[in-house]
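pinging the channel bc i need a second pair of eyes. not urgent but kinda urgent?? the chain im working w is below, pasted from the shared doc
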Amino acid sequence: MKKGILILFFVTFLLCTIYIISKKPSNDSREISIKEKIKTEIANDVFIPSEYDDKGILFLNQVKNKESYFPKYEVRITNNVHVTSGDWRFFQENYDHIGNVKLVIEISKNVFNDLKKQADINLLNPNLNVEIKGIYECLNICFERIKQTDGRWGNQCNCIN
């Protein structure tokens, strides 16, 4: 009888151990959860190199390439790294070169939809929407204000017409 109870206890212990091990998340699932967390965090981010001359056009082109509309876009000024939010790995690997959010820009859904219709955002294009040209001017003011004040006067910029 004691042998039977001991065997039953051992089999139960073995089954519990196998069950616990099978429920433990693998490295793949941890990487997927990290990937999803980072992708969610940077989905509305726009990355602008600090030395880039035409930050407004780069901003508009990156927003145009977003999969979906966001009421606010967080601008990160990067150091010698030109990136997009399409690849989540760069964010972790290059965080020291990317920096914090320096500017939050609001645009309307109509502007986003107009950007999606454009083949390329180029100010010389005669078919470029007048509203987009107005947003471009607003963006230049926002980037200049951040450059001049180093963010001391706040980092919110409303470019909704």
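so Strands lie at 45-49, 72-78, 101-106, 156-158. and Residues 82 and 130 are 28 Å apart (CA to CA). — does that match what u expected or am i reading it wrong
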